[in-house]
Amino acid sequence: MIKIKVEKLKKIVQEILRGYDILPADAEEIANHLIKANIMGMDSHGVMRLPYYLEEVKKGNINKLPTFKTKRIGDFTIIDGDKGFGQIVARYATEHAITSAKGKGISVVGAKNLSHVGMLGYYTLMIAEHGMIGFATTNTDPAIAPVGSRKAALGTNPISIAIPTGNSPILLDMALSVASGGKILFAKKHNEKIPIGWALDAEGNPTQDPNEALNGTLLPIGMHKGYGLALIIDIICGILIGGGYGLELQPGWASQGGLMVMAIDIELIKPLKEFYIEIQRYLEIIKGLPTAPGYNRIMIPGEDLFEKIENNKEDIQLDDETYKLLLQLAEEGGIKISDE
């Protein structure tokens, strides 16, 4: 593992992106997003994705200079991202949701024709920072088989919800597979086994080999429950919003279906200060419950992630392979990396 300063890593990633003629503001946003994922311990959505994104830029699958098209229907807005970086399109959609919800109560924004959006919690936390409840979901290329099948036809279709509390927000950020596709790819990249219960091979048998898992199918959380949720999100993000769905989505690191972001303005429903007092009282009750054997405390969703943010705010650990790839990209772009 390599220990590296957060600011140094941001500078390296930004300069690599700018070497591919990515706009400076976009390069900064993508770097911030990827590194925040690393800081929060979500390495499968962090800077390890950068080489694969850039490969898609070379192929023309990601548009460096997109022109967004916005269509508004009542309180629902659909944005065509023109094949832009998912992080840029999704941030634009999130900012639109926040602005539209303010003073109205609720806003729903859909986005299509975009690349991989990264960590969904990034966007819901943006909404929570404005004193609103944030919800986001997206559908991905096929990775989950319907219960009873061994053929992947549904995405891992993650869901994120962030709720402001007056302190650290509550943050739910989860895929509908037992493990995200990114975690399987991370295990493959590092020649690691995966736990039994994460995936099946192409013949429908449990496997610990990430390569067999990628050629087979991931298992949904709660079996039929996760399958049902994944199906519904495919319909909302893929069919309703128009992002594509199921077997028509090509697999790949930059692949993405549609995105839905929703913001709820708490202040219009209940005074924010009153909401915070009540939610803190509720969380105190939850955390004060007796612990079960093997547990020393009860955690609120997202609490562990915010602890990692605090611990990693200055330095983070990168695996050797990812750091070597960054050095290689920097060398190809003529970027010098100091040892400071």
From TrEMBL:
Pfam assignment, any one: Ldh_2
Keywords in UniProt for this one? Oxidoreductase
Per its UniProt record, what InterPro entries does this chain match? Mal/L-sulf/L-lact_DH-like_ah, Mal/L-sulf/L-lact_DH-like_NADP, Mal/L-sulfo/L-lacto_DH-like_sf, Malate/L-lactate_DH-like
Q: Which SUPFAM superfamilies match?
A: L-sulfolactate dehydrogenase-like
- Which molecular function GO terms apply here? oxidoreductase activity
Q: Does the keyword Calcium apply?
A: no
Oxidoreductase among keywords: yes
Q: Which domain of life is it from?
A: Bacteria
**Family, as annotated:** Belongs to the LDH2/MDH2 oxidoreductase family.
Q: Can you name this protein?
A: Malate/L-lactate dehydrogenase
